[in-house]
Design a protein that fits this description.
It is built from 14 helices and no strands. With 435 residues, the protein is mainly α. The protein has one domain. The chain is globular and about 55 Å long. The chain starts with a helix and ends in a 10-residue tail after the last helix.
Length: 435
Protein backbone atom coordinates (compact mmCIF):
# COMPACT_ATOMS: atom_id res chain seq x y z
CA UNK A 1 0.00 0.00 0.00
CA UNK A 2 1.23 3.51 -0.84
CA UNK A 3 1.52 5.21 2.57
CA UNK A 4 1.79 8.69 1.11
CA UNK A 5 -1.34 8.24 -0.98
CA UNK A 6 -3.22 6.77 1.99
CA UNK A 7 -2.48 9.75 4.24
CA UNK A 8 -3.04 12.42 1.57
CA UNK A 9 -5.82 14.93 2.36
CA UNK A 10 -7.23 14.39 -1.14
CA UNK A 11 -7.65 10.67 -0.46
CA UNK A 12 -9.27 11.34 2.91
CA UNK A 13 -11.65 13.83 1.29
CA UNK A 14 -12.52 11.36 -1.50
CA UNK A 15 -13.87 8.96 1.12
CA UNK A 16 -15.15 11.50 3.65
CA UNK A 17 -17.24 13.73 1.37
CA UNK A 18 -19.53 11.00 -0.02
CA UNK A 19 -19.76 9.55 3.50
CA UNK A 20 -20.70 13.04 4.70
CA UNK A 21 -23.74 13.11 2.42
CA UNK A 22 -24.75 9.59 3.46
CA UNK A 23 -24.37 10.38 7.15
CA UNK A 24 -26.22 13.67 6.83
CA UNK A 25 -29.14 12.24 4.85
CA UNK A 26 -30.87 10.38 7.68
CA UNK A 27 -30.51 13.04 10.41
CA UNK A 28 -31.39 15.73 7.88
CA UNK A 29 -34.60 13.86 7.18
CA UNK A 30 -35.21 13.67 10.96
CA UNK A 31 -34.69 17.44 11.17
CA UNK A 32 -37.22 17.95 8.36
CA UNK A 33 -39.59 15.61 10.17
CA UNK A 34 -39.07 17.51 13.44
CA UNK A 35 -39.76 20.83 11.73
CA UNK A 36 -42.92 19.49 10.04
CA UNK A 37 -44.27 17.91 13.22
CA UNK A 38 -43.22 20.90 15.34
CA UNK A 39 -45.84 23.04 13.65
CA UNK A 40 -48.56 20.58 14.74
CA UNK A 41 -47.94 21.73 18.32
CA UNK A 42 -45.78 21.02 21.37
CA UNK A 43 -47.43 17.68 22.23
CA UNK A 44 -46.77 16.06 18.79
CA UNK A 45 -43.20 17.41 18.88
CA UNK A 46 -42.68 15.99 22.36
CA UNK A 47 -44.17 12.67 21.16
CA UNK A 48 -41.63 12.47 18.32
CA UNK A 49 -38.90 13.32 20.84
CA UNK A 50 -39.87 10.35 22.99
CA UNK A 51 -40.57 7.91 20.14
CA UNK A 52 -37.53 9.03 18.20
CA UNK A 53 -35.32 8.49 21.24
CA UNK A 54 -36.46 4.87 21.44
CA UNK A 55 -35.82 4.30 17.73
CA UNK A 56 -32.41 5.89 18.09
CA UNK A 57 -31.47 2.58 19.70
CA UNK A 58 -32.11 0.87 16.35
CA UNK A 59 -30.02 3.53 14.59
CA UNK A 60 -27.17 2.96 17.04
CA UNK A 61 -27.41 -0.78 16.44
CA UNK A 62 -27.06 0.02 12.75
CA UNK A 63 -24.00 2.13 13.50
CA UNK A 64 -22.48 -0.79 15.39
CA UNK A 65 -23.08 -3.09 12.42
CA UNK A 66 -21.65 -0.57 9.96
CA UNK A 67 -18.57 0.23 12.03
CA UNK A 68 -17.75 -3.39 12.83
CA UNK A 69 -18.22 -4.43 9.22
CA UNK A 70 -16.12 -1.54 7.88
CA UNK A 71 -13.12 -2.47 10.03
CA UNK A 72 -13.17 -6.17 9.15
CA UNK A 73 -13.93 -5.61 5.45
CA UNK A 74 -11.24 -2.92 5.16
CA UNK A 75 -8.56 -5.19 6.62
CA UNK A 76 -9.44 -7.97 4.18
CA UNK A 77 -9.56 -5.47 1.31
CA UNK A 78 -6.17 -4.07 2.34
CA UNK A 79 -4.71 -7.58 2.33
CA UNK A 80 -5.84 -7.98 -1.30
CA UNK A 81 -8.96 -10.18 -0.84
CA UNK A 82 -12.00 -8.18 -2.04
CA UNK A 83 -14.28 -11.24 -2.19
CA UNK A 84 -13.70 -11.95 1.48
CA UNK A 85 -14.44 -8.30 2.25
CA UNK A 86 -17.81 -8.53 0.47
CA UNK A 87 -18.59 -11.79 2.26
CA UNK A 88 -18.13 -9.95 5.56
CA UNK A 89 -20.90 -7.63 4.37
CA UNK A 90 -23.17 -10.54 3.47
CA UNK A 91 -22.93 -12.10 6.91
CA UNK A 92 -23.45 -8.70 8.52
CA UNK A 93 -26.58 -8.28 6.38
CA UNK A 94 -28.03 -11.53 7.73
CA UNK A 95 -27.48 -10.21 11.24
CA UNK A 96 -28.98 -6.86 10.30
CA UNK A 97 -32.17 -8.20 8.77
CA UNK A 98 -32.77 -10.59 11.67
CA UNK A 99 -32.29 -7.87 14.26
CA UNK A 100 -34.54 -5.51 12.30
CA UNK A 101 -37.39 -8.03 12.27
CA UNK A 102 -37.08 -8.49 16.03
CA UNK A 103 -37.29 -4.72 16.56
CA UNK A 104 -40.24 -4.27 14.17
CA UNK A 105 -42.28 -7.00 15.83
CA UNK A 106 -41.19 -6.25 19.38
CA UNK A 107 -42.15 -2.59 19.20
CA UNK A 108 -45.75 -3.50 18.42
CA UNK A 109 -45.95 -4.77 21.99
CA UNK A 110 -43.36 -2.63 23.76
CA UNK A 111 -44.18 0.82 22.33
CA UNK A 112 -46.87 1.63 24.89
CA UNK A 113 -44.91 0.71 28.06
CA UNK A 114 -41.74 2.38 26.76
CA UNK A 115 -43.54 5.60 25.87
CA UNK A 116 -45.27 5.72 29.26
CA UNK A 117 -41.97 5.21 31.06
CA UNK A 118 -40.16 7.92 29.13
CA UNK A 119 -42.87 10.54 28.71
CA UNK A 120 -44.28 10.96 32.21
CA UNK A 121 -47.38 12.45 30.55
CA UNK A 122 -50.32 10.33 29.29
CA UNK A 123 -51.08 12.56 26.30
CA UNK A 124 -47.48 12.57 25.07
CA UNK A 125 -47.10 8.84 25.80
CA UNK A 126 -50.15 7.89 23.73
CA UNK A 127 -49.04 9.91 20.73
CA UNK A 128 -45.48 8.63 21.00
CA UNK A 129 -46.63 5.00 21.09
CA UNK A 130 -48.74 5.44 17.94
CA UNK A 131 -45.78 7.00 16.09
CA UNK A 132 -43.37 4.34 17.34
CA UNK A 133 -45.42 1.31 16.29
CA UNK A 134 -45.45 2.47 12.67
CA UNK A 135 -41.92 3.88 12.51
CA UNK A 136 -40.46 0.63 13.88
CA UNK A 137 -41.55 -1.19 10.71
CA UNK A 138 -38.62 0.48 8.93
CA UNK A 139 -36.05 -1.20 11.21
CA UNK A 140 -35.18 -4.12 8.85
CA UNK A 141 -34.43 -1.69 6.02
CA UNK A 142 -32.53 0.65 8.33
CA UNK A 143 -30.21 -2.10 9.55
CA UNK A 144 -29.74 -3.64 6.10
CA UNK A 145 -28.62 -0.22 4.85
CA UNK A 146 -26.22 0.10 7.77
CA UNK A 147 -24.58 -3.26 7.02
CA UNK A 148 -24.40 -2.34 3.34
CA UNK A 149 -22.72 0.95 4.12
CA UNK A 150 -20.23 -0.95 6.27
CA UNK A 151 -18.90 -3.37 3.66
CA UNK A 152 -18.95 -0.80 0.85
CA UNK A 153 -16.88 1.60 2.95
CA UNK A 154 -14.53 -1.28 3.68
CA UNK A 155 -13.86 -1.80 -0.04
CA UNK A 156 -13.71 2.01 -0.45
CA UNK A 157 -16.85 2.19 -2.62
CA UNK A 158 -18.59 5.40 -1.56
CA UNK A 159 -20.54 6.19 -4.75
CA UNK A 160 -23.30 3.60 -4.47
CA UNK A 161 -24.10 4.21 -0.78
CA UNK A 162 -24.38 7.90 -1.65
CA UNK A 163 -26.95 7.17 -4.37
CA UNK A 164 -28.96 4.68 -2.32
CA UNK A 165 -29.26 6.62 0.92
CA UNK A 166 -29.63 10.08 -0.55
CA UNK A 167 -32.28 8.98 -3.03
CA UNK A 168 -34.37 7.20 -0.41
CA UNK A 169 -34.25 10.09 2.05
CA UNK A 170 -35.06 12.72 -0.57
CA UNK A 171 -38.15 10.69 -1.48
CA UNK A 172 -39.19 10.49 2.15
CA UNK A 173 -38.50 14.17 2.87
CA UNK A 174 -40.87 15.02 0.04
CA UNK A 175 -43.51 12.60 1.34
CA UNK A 176 -43.40 13.73 4.97
CA UNK A 177 -45.09 17.16 4.69
CA UNK A 178 -47.59 15.79 2.16
CA UNK A 179 -48.66 12.93 4.41
CA UNK A 180 -48.73 15.05 7.56
CA UNK A 181 -50.73 18.03 6.19
CA UNK A 182 -52.62 17.66 2.86
CA UNK A 183 -53.25 13.94 3.50
CA UNK A 184 -54.23 14.78 7.08
CA UNK A 185 -52.35 11.86 8.68
CA UNK A 186 -50.48 13.94 11.25
CA UNK A 187 -48.01 11.86 13.27
CA UNK A 188 -48.97 8.73 11.33
CA UNK A 189 -47.82 10.44 8.13
CA UNK A 190 -44.50 11.30 9.74
CA UNK A 191 -43.89 7.70 10.77
CA UNK A 192 -44.96 6.35 7.37
CA UNK A 193 -42.50 8.58 5.52
CA UNK A 194 -39.78 7.32 7.87
CA UNK A 195 -40.59 3.69 6.99
CA UNK A 196 -40.54 4.44 3.25
CA UNK A 197 -37.01 5.90 3.37
CA UNK A 198 -35.54 3.05 5.39
CA UNK A 199 -37.18 0.27 3.38
CA UNK A 200 -36.16 1.70 0.01
CA UNK A 201 -32.54 2.07 1.17
CA UNK A 202 -32.44 -1.47 2.57
CA UNK A 203 -33.72 -2.96 -0.69
CA UNK A 204 -31.07 -1.07 -2.67
CA UNK A 205 -28.23 -2.50 -0.58
CA UNK A 206 -29.70 -6.02 -0.80
CA UNK A 207 -29.76 -5.74 -4.60
CA UNK A 208 -26.12 -4.58 -4.55
CA UNK A 209 -25.17 -7.78 -2.72
CA UNK A 210 -27.07 -9.87 -5.27
CA UNK A 211 -25.00 -8.31 -8.05
CA UNK A 212 -21.75 -9.40 -6.37
CA UNK A 213 -22.62 -13.00 -7.37
CA UNK A 214 -21.49 -14.61 -4.13
CA UNK A 215 -23.23 -17.36 -2.19
CA UNK A 216 -25.97 -16.06 0.13
CA UNK A 217 -25.54 -18.95 2.56
CA UNK A 218 -25.00 -17.83 6.15
CA UNK A 219 -21.58 -18.79 7.55
CA UNK A 220 -21.85 -19.26 11.28
CA UNK A 221 -18.10 -19.01 11.85
CA UNK A 222 -17.89 -15.54 10.25
CA UNK A 223 -21.07 -14.42 11.98
CA UNK A 224 -19.62 -15.61 15.28
CA UNK A 225 -16.45 -13.59 14.69
CA UNK A 226 -18.51 -10.53 13.85
CA UNK A 227 -20.59 -11.00 16.98
CA UNK A 228 -17.47 -11.20 19.12
CA UNK A 229 -16.20 -7.94 17.67
CA UNK A 230 -19.67 -6.43 17.81
CA UNK A 231 -20.05 -7.33 21.48
CA UNK A 232 -17.78 -4.51 22.60
CA UNK A 233 -19.36 -2.07 20.16
CA UNK A 234 -22.80 -3.16 21.39
CA UNK A 235 -21.88 -2.53 25.02
CA UNK A 236 -20.45 0.83 23.99
CA UNK A 237 -23.63 1.64 22.06
CA UNK A 238 -25.71 0.54 25.05
CA UNK A 239 -23.87 3.06 27.23
CA UNK A 240 -24.70 5.78 24.69
CA UNK A 241 -28.36 4.78 24.61
CA UNK A 242 -28.70 4.63 28.37
CA UNK A 243 -27.23 8.12 28.55
CA UNK A 244 -29.47 9.68 25.90
CA UNK A 245 -32.60 7.90 27.13
CA UNK A 246 -31.87 9.18 30.63
CA UNK A 247 -31.39 12.71 29.29
CA UNK A 248 -34.75 12.64 27.50
CA UNK A 249 -36.44 11.15 30.57
CA UNK A 250 -35.04 13.88 32.82
CA UNK A 251 -35.97 16.62 30.31
CA UNK A 252 -39.54 15.27 30.15
CA UNK A 253 -39.80 15.55 33.94
CA UNK A 254 -39.17 19.30 33.61
CA UNK A 255 -42.25 19.75 31.39
CA UNK A 256 -43.43 19.68 27.78
CA UNK A 257 -41.59 22.85 26.71
CA UNK A 258 -38.32 21.58 28.19
CA UNK A 259 -38.40 18.17 26.50
CA UNK A 260 -39.47 19.78 23.20
CA UNK A 261 -36.61 22.31 23.40
CA UNK A 262 -34.23 19.48 24.29
CA UNK A 263 -35.48 17.56 21.23
CA UNK A 264 -34.58 20.43 18.91
CA UNK A 265 -31.09 20.86 20.34
CA UNK A 266 -30.47 17.12 20.62
CA UNK A 267 -31.51 16.35 17.05
CA UNK A 268 -29.22 19.12 15.85
CA UNK A 269 -26.45 17.63 17.99
CA UNK A 270 -27.03 14.19 16.44
CA UNK A 271 -26.98 15.81 13.01
CA UNK A 272 -23.66 17.61 13.55
CA UNK A 273 -22.16 14.56 15.27
CA UNK A 274 -22.94 12.32 12.34
CA UNK A 275 -21.74 14.88 9.81
CA UNK A 276 -18.46 15.27 11.70
CA UNK A 277 -18.29 11.48 11.75
CA UNK A 278 -17.66 11.54 7.98
CA UNK A 279 -13.98 12.05 8.79
CA UNK A 280 -14.16 9.04 11.11
CA UNK A 281 -15.66 6.92 8.33
CA UNK A 282 -12.67 7.72 6.13
CA UNK A 283 -10.41 6.84 9.05
CA UNK A 284 -12.08 3.47 9.55
CA UNK A 285 -11.64 2.50 5.92
CA UNK A 286 -8.09 3.80 5.46
CA UNK A 287 -6.75 2.73 8.87
CA UNK A 288 -8.19 -0.76 8.44
CA UNK A 289 -6.74 -1.08 4.94
CA UNK A 290 -3.33 0.21 6.04
CA UNK A 291 -3.10 -2.19 8.98
CA UNK A 292 -4.41 -5.04 6.82
CA UNK A 293 -1.53 -4.34 4.43
CA UNK A 294 0.96 -4.32 7.32
CA UNK A 295 1.62 -0.56 7.22
CA UNK A 296 1.62 0.52 10.89
CA UNK A 297 3.74 3.64 10.20
CA UNK A 298 1.29 4.87 7.56
CA UNK A 299 -1.62 4.18 9.91
CA UNK A 300 -0.08 6.33 12.66
CA UNK A 301 0.58 9.20 10.24
CA UNK A 302 -2.98 9.00 8.98
CA UNK A 303 -4.35 9.00 12.55
CA UNK A 304 -2.58 12.26 13.37
CA UNK A 305 -3.85 13.90 10.19
CA UNK A 306 -7.39 12.67 10.81
CA UNK A 307 -7.33 14.15 14.32
CA UNK A 308 -6.31 17.59 13.01
CA UNK A 309 -9.00 17.53 10.32
CA UNK A 310 -11.60 16.63 12.95
CA UNK A 311 -10.73 19.66 15.08
CA UNK A 312 -10.81 22.04 12.10
CA UNK A 313 -14.24 20.75 11.03
CA UNK A 314 -15.54 21.12 14.58
CA UNK A 315 -14.42 24.74 14.76
CA UNK A 316 -16.20 25.53 11.49
CA UNK A 317 -19.40 23.95 12.80
CA UNK A 318 -19.15 25.93 16.05
CA UNK A 319 -18.96 29.23 14.15
CA UNK A 320 -21.97 28.38 11.96
CA UNK A 321 -24.10 27.17 14.88
CA UNK A 322 -23.29 30.23 17.00
CA UNK A 323 -24.33 32.49 14.13
CA UNK A 324 -27.66 30.66 13.83
CA UNK A 325 -28.63 30.85 17.50
CA UNK A 326 -31.49 33.27 16.95
CA UNK A 327 -32.70 31.76 13.68
CA UNK A 328 -32.51 27.97 13.68
CA UNK A 329 -34.91 27.19 16.58
CA UNK A 330 -37.62 29.24 14.82
CA UNK A 331 -37.50 26.75 11.95
CA UNK A 332 -38.70 24.00 14.27
CA UNK A 333 -41.39 25.64 16.37
CA UNK A 334 -43.43 28.80 16.83
CA UNK A 335 -43.83 28.11 20.56
CA UNK A 336 -41.89 30.79 22.46
CA UNK A 337 -41.49 28.63 25.57
CA UNK A 338 -39.93 25.83 23.52
CA UNK A 339 -37.55 28.26 21.79
CA UNK A 340 -36.51 29.67 25.18
CA UNK A 341 -35.60 26.18 26.36
CA UNK A 342 -33.60 25.48 23.20
CA UNK A 343 -31.69 28.72 23.80
CA UNK A 344 -30.55 27.40 27.19
CA UNK A 345 -28.84 24.42 25.53
CA UNK A 346 -27.38 26.46 22.65
CA UNK A 347 -24.08 27.70 24.23
CA UNK A 348 -23.25 24.13 25.30
CA UNK A 349 -24.13 22.92 21.81
CA UNK A 350 -21.68 25.40 20.27
CA UNK A 351 -18.86 24.60 22.71
CA UNK A 352 -19.16 20.87 22.04
CA UNK A 353 -18.35 21.12 18.34
CA UNK A 354 -14.50 21.33 18.34
CA UNK A 355 -14.20 18.74 21.11
CA UNK A 356 -16.68 16.49 19.33
CA UNK A 357 -14.85 16.83 16.02
CA UNK A 358 -11.68 15.54 17.64
CA UNK A 359 -13.24 12.70 19.62
CA UNK A 360 -15.31 11.43 16.69
CA UNK A 361 -12.23 11.40 14.45
CA UNK A 362 -10.23 9.45 17.03
CA UNK A 363 -13.12 7.03 17.52
CA UNK A 364 -12.91 6.31 13.79
CA UNK A 365 -9.18 5.64 14.02
CA UNK A 366 -9.57 3.18 16.89
CA UNK A 367 -12.60 1.41 15.38
CA UNK A 368 -10.79 1.04 12.06
CA UNK A 369 -7.88 -0.49 14.00
CA UNK A 370 -10.24 -2.91 15.77
CA UNK A 371 -9.35 -1.40 19.16
CA UNK A 372 -12.98 -1.55 20.25
CA UNK A 373 -12.41 -3.00 23.72
CA UNK A 374 -10.61 0.16 24.79
CA UNK A 375 -13.39 2.31 23.35
CA UNK A 376 -15.97 0.18 25.14
CA UNK A 377 -14.31 0.65 28.52
CA UNK A 378 -13.86 4.39 28.06
CA UNK A 379 -17.46 4.92 26.97
CA UNK A 380 -18.92 2.90 29.83
CA UNK A 381 -16.87 4.84 32.38
CA UNK A 382 -17.74 8.19 30.81
CA UNK A 383 -21.45 7.34 30.63
CA UNK A 384 -22.03 5.61 33.97
CA UNK A 385 -19.41 7.48 35.93
CA UNK A 386 -20.02 11.00 34.61
CA UNK A 387 -22.97 11.62 32.24
CA UNK A 388 -25.80 9.69 33.94
CA UNK A 389 -24.96 10.88 37.48
CA UNK A 390 -24.67 14.47 36.20
CA UNK A 391 -28.08 14.58 34.53
CA UNK A 392 -29.92 12.97 37.44
CA UNK A 393 -28.18 15.41 39.75
CA UNK A 394 -29.52 18.14 37.48
CA UNK A 395 -33.03 16.75 38.04
CA UNK A 396 -32.68 16.58 41.81
CA UNK A 397 -31.25 20.11 42.01
CA UNK A 398 -33.67 21.49 39.39
CA UNK A 399 -30.95 22.68 37.00
CA UNK A 400 -33.06 22.04 33.89
CA UNK A 401 -31.42 21.86 30.47
CA UNK A 402 -28.31 23.61 31.78
CA UNK A 403 -27.52 20.61 33.95
CA UNK A 404 -28.40 18.09 31.23
CA UNK A 405 -26.15 19.71 28.63
CA UNK A 406 -23.33 20.25 31.11
CA UNK A 407 -23.47 16.49 31.69
CA UNK A 408 -23.27 15.84 27.95
CA UNK A 409 -20.23 18.11 27.67
CA UNK A 410 -18.50 16.27 30.51
CA UNK A 411 -19.24 12.96 28.78
CA UNK A 412 -17.55 14.10 25.55
CA UNK A 413 -14.53 15.64 27.31
CA UNK A 414 -13.77 12.44 29.25
CA UNK A 415 -13.89 10.38 26.05
CA UNK A 416 -11.67 12.89 24.23
CA UNK A 417 -8.91 12.79 26.87
CA UNK A 418 -8.93 8.98 26.90
CA UNK A 419 -8.74 8.74 23.10
CA UNK A 420 -5.79 11.16 22.96
CA UNK A 421 -3.92 9.07 25.52
CA UNK A 422 -4.53 5.92 23.48
CA UNK A 423 -3.42 7.58 20.24
CA UNK A 424 -0.18 8.67 21.86
CA UNK A 425 0.54 5.18 23.22
CA UNK A 426 0.50 3.54 19.74
CA UNK A 427 -0.85 0.30 21.20
CA UNK A 428 -3.80 0.33 18.79
CA UNK A 429 -1.71 -0.08 15.59
CA UNK A 430 -1.76 -3.89 15.26
CA UNK A 431 -1.20 -5.17 11.70
CA UNK A 432 -2.85 -8.16 9.97
CA UNK A 433 -5.86 -9.07 7.80
CA UNK A 434 -8.05 -9.57 10.88
CA UNK A 435 -7.24 -8.38 14.37
Amino acid sequence: MDTAATAAPRRIAALALPALVVLAAEPLYVLVDTAVVGHLGSVPLAAVAVGGTVLTMAAWLGTILAYGTTGRAARRFGSGDRTAAVEEGLQASWLAFSAGLVIAVGMQFAAGPLAETLAGNPEIAGAAARWLRIAALGAPGLLLAAAGNGWMRGVQDTRRPLMFVLGANLLSAALCPILVYPAGLGLVGSATANVVAQTVAGVCFAVALLRERISWRPHLRVIGEQLRMGRDLLIRGGAFQLSFLSATTVAARFGTATVAGHQIAMQLWFFTALVLDAVAIAAQSLIGAALGAGDAIGARALARRIALIGVVCGVVFAVVIAAGAGIVPRLFTSDVAVRDQAAIAWPWFVALQPIGGLVFALDGVLIGAGDVRYLRNVTVVAALGFFVPAIWTAYVLDWGLTGIWAGLTLFVVVRCVAALLRLRSGGWAVVGAVR
